[in-house]
Design goal:
about 350 residues; binds adenosine-5'-diphosphate; six-stranded mixed beta sheet; 8 helices; alpha+beta; single chain; four-stranded antiparallel beta sheet; 20 strands
Amino acid sequence: MAGMDVIELQQVTLKYGNLAALHNISLTVKEKSCCAIAGPSGSGKTTLLRVIAGLLHPQSGNMHIADGKTIAMIFQGAALFPHTRVKDNIAYGLYNAGYKKDEIAEMVKHTAEKLHISHLLNRYPSTLSGGEKQRVDIARAIVRKPDILLMDEPFASLDPALRNTLLEEIMRIKEEYGMTLVMVTHDQSDAMRMADTVFLLHDGEIVESGAPGKLFDDPELLFSASFFGSLIPDEYQIHVKNGRFTLLSLDYHCDIPDGTYTVLVRPSSFVSKGTIPVLIDSLSRYEDRYLVTGSCEGERVSLLLDERPKGSALFVGVLEEKVLLFDQNGKRVREKIFL
Ligand code: ADP
């Protein structure tokens, strides 16, 4: 994506006491992009977002926000003032910012319409549902049309359908306002669906970054592959001896040192024609394809096929260039494999 960098971090390290919650973080965020900060619990996601928000100050490194760019943040769980009506919650930051009364009224009205909460403006937060509170919280964050919107898993406690609706609305408003979005998520599907760039954190470091499709299909690290993996089995252990190994009943050549490796075969890397025998356990629709789970010589396998298999067994093939090898440190091995 073209555009200038709106956020830039250089070798940022942040410690809580002796613990380096962020270690040597460098990243850039392009204007109008949607970036996801992803990673397991405790990896430093919230800390990183708070550094970007200017709420935490790193001990070393630099951070730069492009000149004149405004930032707003949506925190975990809607943080509304309980004794203040919805309209005043939304307007809260505007009174001190020097806006005139009728300007404020217009901004609140406009924003409420965007988030479909015009009918709630005179209510108090305690009378709202969880989803309505979140809408008010979003309205509060975007009422000044910030250039950069930061979100820290704001909808984690909502049910999936409502969460999806709110994420879609945020994306719509992001496009309309031309905002840059940076969101923390531990949910790989949110990251896959929304982000154009993912920064994947592990123990306070960015271990891999890039387009979500790249991290899913062509990762450098097994850690990324597993984080962005499906919940269905797609990793296998192989033992290489004299440049040969067996995977799912087939023998391969590969010019790599002897040892144990992990192989990743995404379900979509299988094809319906081949000689690998699979006994089917279950079959379900997955978008416009069929997800088959079963076994091959004692190994669990998951395949995404274009056609519904007939019977309880089938023979499949695998696209060799989509079989990914990782060494014992979880690093990608780029050597080609041959049948
Ligand atoms: P995440 O958002 O990925 O779950 P956090 O950024 O919240 O991770 O935390 C990163 C690490 O820093 C964790 O080990 C956490 O326990 C620690 N940590 C977070 N906040 C504080 C704090 N205020 N004081 C001390 N340690 C903290």
